[in-house]
Amino acid sequence: MADFCRNAKDLIASVHAFAAGSLSQQRAALGANARYFVHLKEGRKHLFGLSKFCAFRGIRLSAYRGERIHDETGGTEARNHLSKLTGEPWVPLRKTSSATQKAFERWFDTLPKNEAFERSRFRLLEISSSHFEGLNQSSSNEPRRKRVITPERLAADLRKQVQVGSVGEKVAMRHEIKRLSALGVYKPRSCVEHVALRNIAEGYDIESVSEKGGVRYIEVKATMGSIENGFFISEGEISELERLGKQAYLYLVELSDLGKGRGAVVAEMSDPVRRLRASGRLHPILYRASLSKRR
Q: pTM of the entire structure?
């Protein structure tokens, strides 16, 4: 079984391995549903590789499908690994720079039989040769040099997180009102309350109650990238959503334009805590500690 990339050196080598293959091999690797690509910028040179291929280290492009390496893991697992390894999100192609878009189109247009792909759905994870400066370039057993995050950068990131959350909730509100309207609910706006505006500790963001639409306590999770990269959920939210059971819902929002408040609910999940736990996709990453005053 092939192994995932362990560090920056592995990932860069994998992108080069993909780019070194013939155009027919690259096209064959894409299959019918490719949407995610790694973009490596080296000076003025742009290289692109299929995300699932690039997630593996030390494999040949000819072996990717010939030896069925592509069946060894799911696309979501591969993308999550690459995002965690690089610290970068998956960004819609249309949101990247014009230079990146032109370089991608030049490459993709050279591939045979590429007409069937819906390019508006493509997403890139962007890195460069200097991207990993300050990150671990060697084996996972050697000390890692950390990225530098200044207090100003942290404050800016936190402000953006709050903005993304706020805009995501507004998108979810519009989505829920539209859902009720489609069901024929009378005055649907009056049936939906933006609970987070009065109490952020409620454990959910939106309350929707109507005869035709049922009762939904909705927690909203929003991102500027792909929601498949994952999201964070607090202990309080988990506790309340678990208590609410089948009346609890998770609305996952992908934002396309933060400034203009544009985005869409890409998934609705009922009884989310039970389903996430059952699928093994809920992982604790934060610990709470307490100390006694006694020594």
A: 0.55
